[in-house]
Structure prediction request, 300 residues.
Amino acid sequence: MINRMAVFTLPPEMIGFYKHHVQYLSENAVNPDKRRYAVEEEAARHYIDIDVYGDSAVYHMPRYWKDAVQRYPEDTLKMYGIVPWYVNKMRYRLTDAMRVRDAASILRLSAELGHYVADANVPLHTTENYNGQLTGQKGIHGLWESRLTELFATEYDFFVGKASYLERPQVTIWNAVIQAHEALDSVLFFEKELTTKFGPDKKYGYETRGNQTIKTYSYKFSQAYHRVLNGMVERQMLRSVKMTGDFWYTCWVDAGQPDLQEMIDFEFSEEELAQRYKELEEWKKRRLKSKRKHESGVDL
Prediction:
């Protein structure tokens, strides 16, 4: 849903290409989740347990990867999650794909970048207590991220305006993590308060899905939780939509605003793409000396 709605934030020069492939962008947004159990390093790209670094660490953590690895061991950073730094890496990859006009990679990277941006906006992706397992609230992750949107997302107004150019993309994604983390206390507090009020018999219910009957959070409990959060889930979803569009647009501008319309039904041969990437690497080497300081050290 995030990627689908983000398409409509794009300017005329981009929207034709993205709208033509909107089904691909929606369906393939889940690819990073599919890789979590097949690719060892994938899981850490979806979250950052910022609270393990201290109570106010979210305001003081290094914003750029090269600075982070100077302060902390790399294996520690990857153990507790790297989502804001990985979003920046994906931004560089998408920009490169646009520079060489690699349509297949533009679509794949756009779809996956939207996934990681959305993850950075989820409060429970910013804490070691990601599923309430440390506070006796196991299952809260699915409640906040899936159950509430399943029941109430049709009520949301997804009009977020037009995509904007991000002057400091890495600061933008860290601001998303900050906002999400600041909402965490409410996510946990209100769920616990309502659990006491409802009791386990009214907190859960059973629903039939296909040929299965499953135990899930009851509609009334979910409705009460959604109401007491006072629009939080909708706000975070809208931020994800707008931010995804902003990142796509920023990549396109930084790539020199290539003509995406020409790529709607066109694919380069592997040889042509290899040559374009070779030329890109040569261009990067020539540009290295004048590269802005904060753009270095992005490899994760």
Q: What stands out?
A: The chain has a mean pLDDT of 91.
